[in-house]
């Protein structure tokens, strides 16, 4: 994907900026923490369709053979955690949307109805696995999230992180040869755009 995306103009006066260290793209200027909290508690209406919760539970269980304690940050309606509970794991979710949290609780999952913060993290204890599925692209401070997760993981714990694979060769071909707009730029909720390479680099140092 061409580096010309650095500085790409977005609606509302925002632009894309390429992170010089890790190579992913970020929206600038960023919304405030208060604006983000209000958006996800009151406005955001993701249908919470899981990508592949069964496969997630299988992969984590392969890496951590004994059922343990698992945390899903941004758990939505608890689809991922339900797959872990079926395998004997003790599950905790963090979800700021009241309706989604209620559905997850209906599945027997312990849910903290808020955004993960340093204060909340200190009350949760530690975990054998932490799930961050399609959350990192939404965050104003993604590096802070990774630091918190590092502190929540027990030694030998498993971190499962899933994001869209953006600014990839297929998207580049579609834009260049089919004269399409970059449809994967999803405002106002997607603030970070990772590729496999940039995600690996970003996660490895946090």
Structural notes for this entry:
This protein is of the alpha/beta class. The protein has eight helices and eight strands. α4 links the parallel β4 and β5. α2 crosses α3 and α5 packs parallel to α6. The two termini are 25 Å apart.
Strand content: 15-25%
Number of strands: 8
Order of helices and strands: EEHHEHEHEHEHEHEH
**Straight-line distance between termini:** 25 Å
> Average pLDDT, to the nearest integer?
90
* Radius of gyration, CA atoms, in whole angstroms: 17 Å
Describe the main β-sheet briefly.
5 strands, parallel
The side-by-side strand order for the widest beta sheet comes to: 5-4-3-6-7
Number of helices: 8
In one word, what is the shape? globular
What tags apply to this protein structure?
206 residues, alpha/beta, three-stranded antiparallel sheet
Short description:
The chain is an alpha/beta fold and 206 residues long.
Secondary-structure map:
Elements lengths: L14 E4 L6 E4 L4 H11 L9 H11 L5 E5 L5 H7 L4 E5 L3 H9 L3 E3 L5 H7 L2 E7 L8 H11 E10 L6 H10 L13 E2 L2 H9 L2
Parallel strand pairs: 3-4, 3-6, 4-5, 6-7
Antiparallel strand pairs: 1-2, 2-8
Helix pairs in contact: 2-3, 5-6
